[in-house]
Amino acid sequence: MAEFDRIAPVYDETRGSLSAVALEALRTTLTQSATTSVLEVGVGTGRVSIPLQNLGWVVTGADLSTGMLLRARRKGLRRLVRANAEHLPFADATFDSAILAHVLHVFDDPSAALRETARVTRGRILALLRSSSGSPPNNERRRQVWTLLQELRAQYGLPSPARPRRWWREAALLRSAPPLEIHELPDSSPGRSVEDWIVGLEKRAYPGLADVPDDVLQRIVRELRQRIHDLPAQGPRKERLAVWRPEQLKDLPTLVPGSTADTGAFGEPAAGREPGPGHAR
Fold first, then answer.
1. b/e per residue, 266-277, with b = 16+ CB within 10 A?
2. Which of 250, 269, 245, 268 is nearest to 127 (CA)?
3. Cβ proximity of 72 and 45 under 8 Å
4. pLDDT digits (tens, 9 = 90+) for 211-247
5. What is the CATH number of the domain that holds 58?
6. Which H or E run includes 80?
7. What is the extent of the structural domain holding 15?
8. How many domains does the chain fold into?
9. Is residue 148 part of a domain?
10. Which of 61, 91, 145, 164 shows a CA-CA span of 20 to 30 A to 125?
11. pLDDT digits (tens, 9 = 90+) for 20-78
């Protein structure tokens, strides 16, 4: 979790907030399932848990990154636990519901994380995921940015980022354990400009940048600004909400990939590789 500790100070300012549509979908599902206590696995800086806490739920956030937990604490999230998602320090059926928001691609073993979440939950398990219907203009825009970034890293003698961003896992998990419900959420969050992405790059807010010297990073940033300023803004992010009962996940098999693509900043596939299922963000 050292990487998330590193980016914690700039995480919120380089990511969008929880959309109103996503918050309403979570609120509706939690209300319908008569939830009082909620566990968020992979709570990060509290971007999901704090709005739910403000709406009256008793929310506990679990995360392995101390840096992220400190940010969540400073923002007012009251119940926090440092824990590995695959080994949660709670008794069976402790929580009414649990939430995993855009974190399944991060876990080393997302199946184990879901099984463990199911163990400590007695009601519903909710996961915010990328939508299955990506925006082609967004995908093409991101490919162009990623291709240029890889080209510039090679030009300055830097290897391709080695952090795996296994977005294929989301689609594979849905095939292994079809949800009780799945909701495609309407577009709601505003798009981001190319400059927004470059500022995040400049602040090292994305994975795969820790090895880049300051002077090289500044040269890459300058060249990116010169060469991609005319790309269109990113469209709204498409999301979906999956809902399971705990018993659907307790025997979830471990995923075995057919192949994986190393990725880094912006979460794009390595050069020459097409994005796998669910790669639409």
1. bbbbbeeeebbe
2. 245
3. yes
4. 788 888 888 888 888 877 666 666 566 789 999 999 9
5. 3.40.50.150
6. strand 79-82
7. 2-134+165-193+236-261
8. 1
9. no
10. 164
11. 999 999 999 999 999 999 999 999 999 999 999 999 999 999 999 999 999 999 999 99
